[in-house]
Amino acid sequence: FQNVNNSQIFDPLNNKEDIKCFAAVATSLNIYYPDAARSKNLYNVVMKGMRNTRPPQEQTLNIPEDKISEVGIIDVNLKDINGNAHKLTDLKGKVVLLDFNIFQSATGVPHNYMLRELYNKYAGKGLEIYQVSLDADEHFWKTSASNLPWICVRDANGTYSTFAAIYSVQQLPAYFLIDRKNELSARGENVKNLEEEIKKML
Q: Is the peptide bond prior to 64 cis by the omega test (within 30 degrees of 0)?
C-alpha cells in the first residue's frame, strides 16, 4: 500500500471506512475477474480487515407489527437474476441458510463475503444458501449477484416483503438455519457461532 512520510494513505486492515471502499472494489473485481490473482488477493485483504475491526451495525428494518407472525418454515418462491423461479422447499435434504439482505447497504458487501467463506467450505458437504434480496434497485442487485455461487432471488416488494414479515425479519441482514427435513432449526440472533452451528447440522 502507498505510504507518505511512513504513513499509509489507506489502511484496509484497521480502518473501517477504508475497508468499505476496498470491499466495494473487491466486489467489482470479483464480478468481472473472479479468477484473477488480484481479485483473490484483495478479497483476502478485505476479509482480514473485517476480522480486525468490529462488524458494522445492522440496519433496522421497519415492518408494521400487524404483519409479523411466528411460524415454522414457509415456502419462498422467487426468481433469480435470469428469471428462473426457485422454491425454498425444493432444497429438502440439504442444510439451508435462508438469508435476507440488501446488497446496496453498508452491511451488504461484508455480509456476502462472510457467506462466501461458509459456502466455499461447506457447499460440498450439503450446505445451500437461499438468499433473498430486498433491494429496491433491481439493476444493482442483478449486477452484484451475477457472480454468486448460491441461490439468490429478489423480492420486488423490498422491505415490505411478505416473506420477510412472515419470518419476523426486523433487522438486516437476517438469516435462519433450516435442517435437512425442511424444518426451521435456528434464527440468527439465537446463534452464537454460525459456522459451528452449520457443522453440527451437516
A: no
Q: 173 and 115 in contact (C-beta within 8 Å)?
A: no
What is the pTM assigned to this prediction? Answer: 0.69
Report DSSP state, residue 182.
Answer: S
Please state the φ and ψ torsions of residue 15, each to the nearest 5 degrees.
-100, 120
Distance CA 119, CA 129 (A): 8
Do 42 and 99 sit in the same domain of this protein? Answer: no
Chunk the chain into consecutive blocks of 10 residues (it has 202) and report each block's average pLDDT, rounded to whole numbers: 57 72 69 72 72 53 46 81 95 95 85 93 96 92 93 92 87 91 86 90 94
Domain limits at 141?
59-201
Kindly state whether residues 39 and 74 are assigned to the same domain.
no
State which amino acid sits at residue 175: Y
pLDDT at 129: 97
Do residue 64 and residue 162 come from a single domain? yes
Question: Do residues 84 and 179 both lie within one domain?
Answer: yes
How does strand 171-172 pair with strand 59-60? antiparallel
- Residue 102 amino acid letter: I
**Do 46 and 67 belong to one domain?**
no
- Dihedrals phi, psi of 85, to nearest 5 degrees: -80, 140
